[in-house]
Amino acid sequence: MISRRNRIIAFLIIIVNIYLIPVSVSIFLSHGGPAGVSNWILPFSILINLFFVPALLSFKKNFEQRVSRINEVGISMIVVLFALGFLSIYFV
Q1: C-alpha angle with apex 76: 88 to 29, nearest 5 degrees?
Q2: How many other C-beta atoms lie within 10 A of the C-beta of residue 5?
Q3: Cβ neighbourhood burial of 51 (10 Å; 0-12, 13-18, 19+)
Q4: How deeply is 6 buried, as exposed, middle or buried, from its count of CB atoms within 10 A (0-12, 13-18, 19+)?
Q5: What's the CA gap between 70 and 11, in Å, rounded?
Q6: Gap between the Cα atoms of 22 and 1, Å rounded
Q7: Residues 39/32, Cβ–Cβ less than 8 Å
Q8: DSSP assignment, residue 51?
């Protein structure tokens, strides 16, 4: 049961990073856009991108138990950052 939960969490992190890795690269290459406003998003995007490697390693038997806690922290951070992003859009 725990192994299945860890794989689901790792899969969700990989899915989020499939979208965020190109976003991070495009922000970095465009120097934050015309006014540099996207540079405010880049640290949070890169922070989420760092959890991509442990998510991939969780599908290997040798690393499955080692990276499970890292993946749990990663998915909770992703949920918190997205929730704060949505709240800042609608309530600020």
Answers
A1: 65
A2: 12
A3: buried
A4: buried
A5: 13
A6: 33
A7: yes
A8: T
Q: What angle do CA 71, 84, 81 make, to 5 degrees?
A: 20
Confidence (pTM): 0.84
Q: Output the six-digit token pair for 83.
A: 């929730």
* The residue type at 23: V
Q: Residue 48 has which token pair? A: 């989420």
Name the CA dihedral angle for 39, 67, 59, 9, rounded to a multiple of 10 degrees: -60
Rg (CA), the chain: 15
Residue-wise pLDDT tens digits, 16-75 = 999 989 988 998 898 888 888 888 888 888 999 999 999 999 988 888 788 889 999 999
